[in-house]
Model the fold of this input.
Amino acid sequence: MRTEHRKLRGTIMKHPPKITTLFLDIGGVLLTNGWDHHARRRAATNFKLELAEMEDRHHLTFDTYEEGKLTLEEYLNRVVFYKKRPFTRAQFRRFMFAQSKPYPEMIELAAQLKVQHGLKIAVVSNEARELNSHRIRKFNLDGFVDFFISSCFVHLRKPDADIFRIALDIAQVPANQVVYIENTPMFVQIAEGLGIPSILHTDYRSTCAKLASFGLQNSEGVIHETS
Done:
């Protein structure tokens, strides 16, 4: 009897903790990337810019911009408007913002899981302030996200592990009660190194299956993937 009791107690102790919180990336998970190399290539074509020069200038300054240490105007001064252009800043900003598109099935999934499982939801993302604010408003991310640990707000960016530590502090949950959904393998590895169970997101259906393995089933039924 005592042996059976010890076995039962061991089984209970090994049972995984209940997940109470989702950490989500934005670009590549909830939305397309806001200003990646594909978007910059489209901008170079649209505005007849020299792509190689634009890319060099971008890489020299973008980390600083994403950490909230430059405004969008300052970024554009360095990357595009360091000389006279036949288009306006407003035209270029509109083009930048228009590159963001939603992944509706992922947005709906996160919103449904929040309701069904009573989850806290936090965004942990590398995003520049103006673009981040636009994306939050445009796609109503604040309708289901409780707080945003964006690089522009906390002045840290992934792969700095401290951005995840800040997220845990603000969420006030232990790492093993979180699931983090991210599409960049290195960032998944860093989060897992801090004890945060993580999902490398590649597509909606596989992420649903991985979430179900953590006890986070989507009981609203299958949402068909969009093209």
The first strand starts at residue 21 and ends at 24.
